[in-house]
């Protein structure tokens, strides 16, 4: 209807005039000729003796009424049509504006994520070769923090202009996907070298100083590049590939570009799977305590156990702490794991002789956490495990990061009656400062001092034992194995070493296997006594 009217604006009046003429014509025809025939044909009485004036009056009256009944609705209809047309056009205009808004970024005037995805889909549907460069600004947050959001916006606009210029230069399209994330899209095949050059130039251009905000701001950019048909065939997958490549650069130090690499993505996915599996492992208490006996010297009877974390995987295999502790550290799950280990260890120990001690390894993050001593004490009270039979082991590395906090926490533990052992002593800092200023009760001489067949380190062990004696500290020798028999345990006892630990007395084992060994009389490993 719209088109019809636009093409032929005088069609409606013409149509009206024609209709009117037809009506008048028909009236005349009826009044002067047809009426008599029809009445006669219908066999109805008819007095055709009318004056012409009468006939004309009838023609005019009937035509006049017909005209009124035609023109009024036509005018009303016409008005309605015009107003509908106006609304329709207004709607079209609004729709166009909304679509523009929805596809463009109002700050930078670049196409936004939606516009970019539409374009990408369109080009992929045309089977075009596409390369995309996902650009994420480095340290943009610092700019926002230093110069406020308006300063940040100024930088974004400037970056957008620089990217627009690069896009124009290489026949591409620039987009702002959101925040400080931009994208360049290039059509048709470009080799790796050309793309590398463009990416390098882009990083360089973005890193150049900014005029606004006027304070010299150094920005960087990390770029991930992906190519259609090589890396992915679908728009969102292609963007995901560029994202993965970009994150690779972020992890490797920023201000660099990377092409998407399948293998890297596979590794990332494996890491994410492992992270997830470990989250579940902590939640479901798959991280279990293993217990390694600690014996007193010279009798070599078991006085306690070191608690060592193991991952009892659902498939029956056992994971070692070196494989999962660093991951749990990164995931911030060490406190949760330690809590669960303490719970499980205390419950296992409740079935054993009530003189046995437990020794727990505590990581750096925990030993400097202000709440750790109180929480541990609270948990031990809850588990009804006496503080005097509990010990925490820390390494010197764990202490040095935040010595003040560590010192406060060790004193607190001490006040509760929980003892503290310095683990792996002799291989790290071995600082006298730590030994003399911190509340440390025990030194655990690292197992590397007791290597197989070597007595080279014994003078050093002797010196450590002498020092411990002077400082009134207890000493545990770690890593005592079968091949040290019978000489080493005896030598250690004679030189004032209080405790020993190692495969000779038992490997780290599950709580269930310990129960039988320590239930009744506290027997020592038969071999050890010989
Ligand atoms: O047997 P093993 O491989 O368990 O021990 C390797 C190291 O892992 C130990 O020396 C210890 O430092 C660390 N480790 C073992 N269990 C735990 C634990 O529960 N918490 C922390 N923080 N470290 C542990
Ligand atoms: O926390 P610490 O570093 O002390 O952990 C003890 C580690 O030493 C555990 O991984 C444990 O399996 C390991 N271990 C304990 N006894 C021996 C031993 O006699 N020989 C060797 N090679 N390793 C031991
Ligand atoms: Mn230890």
Could you explain how this protein is built, in words?
By secondary structure, this protein is α/β, with parallel strands linked by helices. The protein folds into 3 domains: 2-103; 113-260, Alpha-Beta Plaits; 271-524, TIM Barrel. The protein has 19 helices and 15 strands. The protein has helices at residues 2-7, 11-41, 52-103, 113-125, 140-169, 192-207, 235-251, 262-283, 321-331, 334-349, 364-367, 372-382, 396-400, 403-416, 432-437, 458-471, 487-494, 511-518, 526-529; strands spanning 130-138, 172-178, 181-187, 220-227, 257-259, 287-296, 301-312, 318-319, 357-361, 390-394, 419-425, 442-445, 474-477, 499-501, 509-510. Strands 6-7-9-10-11-12-13-14 form an 8-stranded mixed barrel, surrounded by 5 helices. Helix 7 links the parallel strand 4 (220-227) and strand 5. Helix 2 packs antiparallel against helix 3. It starts with a helix and ends with a helix. InterPro entries: Biofilm_reg_signaling, EAL_dom, EAL_sf, GGDEF_dom, Nucleotide_cyclase, Rev_trsase/Diguanyl_cyclase. It holds the Pfam family EAL.
Computed structural class: alpha/beta
Number of domains: 3
CATH superfamily of the largest domain: EAL domain
What's the total number of strands? 15
| Gross morphology | elongated
Unreliable stretches: 1-5, 520-530
Q: Can you name the CATH architecture of the largest domain?
A: Alpha-Beta Barrel
Overall average pLDDT? 90
Bound small-molecule species:
guanosine-5'-monophosphate, manganese (II) ion
Strand content: 15-25%
Q: Order of strands across the widest beta sheet?
A: 6-7-9-10-11-12-13-14
Instruction: Give me the Rg, rounded.
Output: 45 Å
Instruction: Give the C-level CATH assignment of the largest domain.
Output: Alpha Beta
Q: Which bin fits the share of residues in helices?
A: 40-55%
Q: Write the CATH fold name of the largest domain.
A: TIM Barrel
Biggest β-sheet strands, sense, barrel: 8 strands, mixed, barrel
InterPro entries: Biofilm_reg_signaling, EAL_dom, EAL_sf, GGDEF_dom, Nucleotide_cyclase, Rev_trsase/Diguanyl_cyclase
Protein name: EAL domain-containing protein
Keywords: Membrane, Transmembrane, Transmembrane helix
């Amino acid at each position: 209807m719209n088109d019809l009217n636009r093409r032929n604006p005088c069609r409606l009046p013409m149509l009206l005039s024609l209709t009117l003429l037809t009506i008048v014509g028909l009236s005349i025809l009826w009044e002067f000729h047809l009426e008599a025939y029809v009445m006669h044909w219908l066999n109805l009485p008819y007095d055709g003796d009318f004056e012409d004036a009468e006939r004309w009056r009838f023609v005019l009256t009937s035509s006049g009424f017909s005209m009124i009944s035609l023109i009024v609705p036509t005018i009303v209809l016409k008005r309605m049509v015009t107003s509908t047309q106006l609304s329709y056009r207004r709607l079209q205009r609004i729709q166009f504006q909304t679509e523009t808004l929805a596809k463009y970024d109002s700050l930078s005037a670049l196409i936004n994520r939606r516009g970019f995805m539409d374009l990408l889909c369109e080009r992929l549907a045309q089977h075009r070769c596409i390369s995309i460069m996902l650009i994420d600004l480095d340290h943009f947050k610092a700019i926002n923090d230093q110069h406020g959001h308006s300063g940040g916006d100024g930088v974004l606009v400037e970056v957008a202009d620089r990217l627009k210029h690069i896009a124009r230069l290489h026949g591409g399209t620039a987009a702002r996907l959101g925040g400080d994330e931009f994208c360049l899209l290039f059509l048709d095949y470009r080799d790796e070298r050309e793309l590398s050059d463009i990416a390098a130039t882009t990083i360089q251009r973005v890193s150049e100083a900014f005029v606004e905000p006027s304070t010299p701001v150094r920005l960087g950019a990390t770029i991930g590049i992906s190519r259609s048909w090589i890396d992915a065939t679908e728009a969102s997958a292609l963007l995901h590939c560029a994202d993965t490549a970009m994150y690779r650069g972020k992890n490797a130090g920023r201000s660099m570009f990377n092409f998407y690499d399948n293998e890297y993505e596979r590794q990332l996915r494996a890491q994410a799977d492992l992270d997830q599996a470990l989250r579940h492992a902590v939640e479901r208490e798959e991280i279990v305590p293993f217990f390694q006996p600690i014996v007193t010297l010279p009798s070599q009877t078991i006085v306690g156990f070191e608690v060592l974390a193991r991952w009892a995987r659902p498939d029956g295999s056992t994971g070692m702490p070196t494989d999962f502790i660093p991951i749990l550290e990164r995931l911030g799950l060490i406190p949760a794991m330690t809590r669960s280990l303490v719970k499980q260890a205390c419950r296992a120990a409740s079935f054993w002789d009530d003189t046995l001690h437990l020794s727990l390894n505590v990581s750096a993050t925990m030993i400097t956490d202000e709440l750790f001593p109180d929480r541990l004490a609270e948990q031990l009270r809850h588990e009804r495990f006496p503080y005097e039979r509990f010990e925490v082991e820390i390494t010197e590395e764990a202490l040095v990061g935040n010595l003040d906090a560590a010192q406060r926490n060790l004193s607190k533990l001490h006040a509760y009656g929980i003892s503290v052992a310095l683990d792996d002593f002799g291989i790290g800092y071995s600082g006298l400062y730590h030994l003399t200023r911190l509340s440390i009760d025990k030194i655990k001489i690292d197992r590397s001092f007791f290597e197989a067949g070597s007595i080279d380190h014994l003078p050093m062990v002797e010196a450590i034992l002498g020092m411990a004696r002077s400082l009134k500290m207890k000493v545990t020798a770690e890593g005592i194995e079968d091949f040290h028999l019978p000489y080493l345990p005896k030598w250690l006892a004679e030189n004032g070493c209080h405790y020993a630990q190692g495969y000779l007395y038992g490997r780290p084992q599950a709580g269930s296997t310990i129960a039988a060994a320590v239930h009744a009389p506290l027997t020592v490993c038969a071999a050890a006594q010989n």
